[in-house]
Design a protein that fits this description.
Order of helices and strands: EEEHEHEEHEEHEHEHEEEHEHEHEHH
Largest sheet: 6 strands, parallel
CATH topology of the largest domain: Rossmann fold
Strand order of the largest sheet: 5-6-4-1-7-8
CATH superfamily of the largest domain: Phosphoglycerate kinase, N-terminal domain
CATH class of the largest domain: Alpha Beta
Number of strands: 16
Oligomer: single chain
Radius of gyration: 21 Å
């Protein structure tokens, strides 16, 4: 995989795919961790003489139509705060044959939501070609790990127009996920939660061959998940609401999970252990996140959208927590672990 370490960025105009699909509230970015995750690549390119960096991303599901609720304008404002010494430009998507005029003193530009045009999700080469031509881009840097499992214009069709290099975030994601599949330190612990067993069973099956211990919690366990595999521990007690609904893993099971975490040298966690949207039923997930985040002697991978969002929010208030990887790609990280072909990665290797 070609990375930006292989790129001569000097005096180049670089088109860079990022993952700025961040939560918004009242027109402002609610959590900027994904934006901050892109800064090492931006800084590296600037330090190595890039002429301009044009950032492209999607946000939400506007279904190919311009929708102010999904504008990246709040992200541009957050970028200005995170990069106070840089002049940040924000521009609409170009029409065909239109040029985007970026002033000389603007080194970083962010374009509007890619999904405002149906060509992005349709993997339309003409759409991404119009962006390449409008920006005079010479090189493409793919740093949006969260979308590399999708054959969209900014992940797949782009390979027809520019040489592609992986950014530092993408490289970090791939290296960490590869390490747990190819050369993990034992004991290996997989913690599975969430609601739908059909989304997780393949992962359980794969790791049943390589993990030393698998934990099943969340609604999957509450609904009575069964297995004969002795290395799979299914949560056995639960905290219930007044209706008798099992909404969190109980204290006995949480204590057992804590013991598995203490012993493990490689930990992969996918899926919350309870209905963590309600703090009353976030106890098991919080204890699990804190124990993993305080474990400095293990490779620790957090993946899956709900799980990473929960951990990211916890990290905002618990500065001592650190993980090898809090994956920015929910579906992408799962498909990588399942060994599926990812169009965005294949495009870099092409």
């Amino acid at each position: 995989m070609k990375t930006i370490y292989d790129l001569d960025a000097k005096n180049k105009t670089i088109l860079m795919r990022v993952d700025y699909n961040v939560p918004l509230r009242n027109g402002k970015v609610e959590n900027d961790l994904r934006i901050r995750a892109s800064l090492p690549t931006i800084d590296y390119l600037l330090e190595h003489g890039a002429k301009k960096i044009i950032l492209i991303s999607h946000l939400g599901r506007p279904e190919g139509k311009i929708n102010p609720d999904f504008s990246l304008s709040p992200v541009a404002e957050t970028l200005k705060k995170l990069l106070p010494h840089q002049k940040i430009g924000f521009y609409p998507l170009p029409e065909p044959t239109q040029k985007i005029e970026i002033p000389a003193d603007v080194k970083i530009a962010l374009l509007e939501n890619l999904r405002f045009d149906p060509g992005e999700e349709e993997n339309n080469p003409d759409f991404i070609k119009s962006i390449v031509e409008a920006t005079n881009a010479e090189v493409y840097v793919q740093d949006g790990f969260a979308v590399i499992h999708r054959a969209h214009a900014s992940t797949d069709a782009i390979k027809n127009f520019l040489p592609i290099y992986a950014g530092l975030l993408l490289e970090k994601e791939v290296k960490n996920l590869e390490s747990v599949l190819k050369n993990p330190e034992k004991p290996i612990l997989l913690i599975i939660g969430g609601a739908k067993v059909e989304d997780k069973q393949l992962l359980i099956d794969i790791f049943a061959k390589i993990a030393d211990q698998i934990v099943v919690g969340g609604k999957i366990a509450a609904d009575g998940y069964k297995t004969n595999d002795k290395k799979i521990y299914v949560a056995e007690d639960f905290d219930e609401n007044a209706k008798g609904e099992k909404l969190d893993v109980g204290p006995l099971s949480t204590a057992k999970i804590a013991g598995f975490i203490t012993d493990a040298k490689t930990i992969i966690w996918n899926g919350l252990l309870g209905y963590a949207e309600d703090p009353a039923y976030a106890t098991a997930s919080t204890i699990t996140a804190e124990m993993i985040g305080e474990k400095s002697d293990a490779k620790t991978i957090i993946c899956g959208g709900d799980t990473t969002g929960f951990v990211e929010n916890l990290m905002e208030t618990h500065q001592n927590l650190a993980y090898s990887l809090v994956s920015t790609g929910g579906g992408a990280s799962l498909e990588f672990l399942l060994g599926k072909s990812l169009p965005g990665l294949e495009a870099i290797k092409a």
